[in-house]
Design brief:
By secondary structure, the protein is of the alpha/beta class. The chain folds into two domains: about 180 residues, Spore Coat Polysaccharide Biosynthesis Protein SpsA, Chain A (Alpha-Beta Complex), CATH 3.90.550.10; about 60 residues, no CATH class. About 30% of the residues lie in helices and about 20% in strands. It is built from eight helices and ten strands. A seven-stranded mixed beta sheet has the order 1-3-2-4-7-6-8, sandwiched between helices. Strand 2, helix 1 and strand 3 form a beta-alpha-beta unit. Helix 2 packs across helix 3 and helix 4 crosses helix 5. The radius of gyration is 18 Å and the shape is globular. The chain starts with a strand and ends with a helix.
């Protein structure tokens, strides 16, 4: 299924949300935000539900070929279904036509591959027509052959499309660092900066509860960061309705 109701070829830019599988618990909150933001700047928008990636690779790779659903646009903004945009976020910043724009990932300490100078997150991708071949190349490569724990010292942090796209873009020096505000990984930023990190977040209900309570208090750092960001990426977080209430 592909939602074409907001696609208008008269626009140069299209924002595409990719959501494979039964994910309405997220898209009920996130897609409408994308549509409103896109419309406010004259962009088209589309929700892609159909898995067209080859059977031997993860559904995540659909992001790298999402542009195939809407050929002919000059610029593509490809967004994860758990990323919630503010309706009044500014227009998209300019990315050179031959580069892919990505934000820095919340986790920077695990990548070992020396050609990857900083680890980019693929939850928010900006690509012009001249850069679509880079997405296609990453798609054709498929899964990155090394992990951060296999002893190869060639691992790149991030599963599936993320490691592979980082590999291609840094290899070719065609990556543009977007403002962090477009893709703020709120929960991971919180626990990655904590001494006990993921393990404490996973095991301590009190630790998680403290975080969510902190988002209701105006002057906390966690609340301020969400207020500043344009796109709130809910990776490892629950309660999209709660995030929708505080990220306006």
């Amino acid at each position: 299924m592909t939602d074409l109701q907001k696609m208008d070829k008269k626009n140069d830019t299209i924002a595409i949300m990719v959501s494979i599988g039964p994910r309405t618990r997220l898209t009920d909150y996130t897609y409408n935000r994308l549509v409103l933001w896109a419309a406010s700047h004259g962009y088209s928008s589309m929700l892609v539900k159909k898995n067209v990636a080859e059977a031997n690779i993860a559904p995540h790779f659909n992001k790298l070929i999402a542009h195939r659903h809407a050929p002919g646009f000059k610029r593509y903004i490809i967004v994860d279904d758990d990323l919630m945009l503010k309706k009044d976020a500014p227009p998209m910043e300019n990315v050179p036509d031959d580069m892919i724009g990505l934000c820095s990932d919340a986790v920077q300490s695990l990548t070992q591959a020396t050609h990857v100078k900083w680890t980019a997150n693929t939850g928010f991708i900006v690509a012009g027509q001249k850069a679509l071949n880079l997405l296609e190349e990453a798609y054709q490569r498929g899964e990155y052959p090394f992990t951060c724990w296999d002893g190869s010292n060639k691992g790149i942090w991030g599963p599936h499309d993320q490691a592979t796209l980082n590999d291609v873009l840094f290899e070719k020096n065609n990556i543009y660092k977007l403002n962090w505000r477009w893709n703020y990984q709120a929960v991971i930023e919180y626990y990655a900066g904590n001494r006990n990190g993921w393990h404490k977040w996973q095991k301590s209900r009190l630790h998680r509860l403290f975080y969510y309570i902190s988002l209701l208090i105006p002057l906390t750092k966690n609340k301020k960061m969400i207020k500043k960001c344009y796109g709130l990426h809910m990776t490892m977080g629950s309660y999209p309705g709660f995030f929708s209430h505080i990220h306006k």
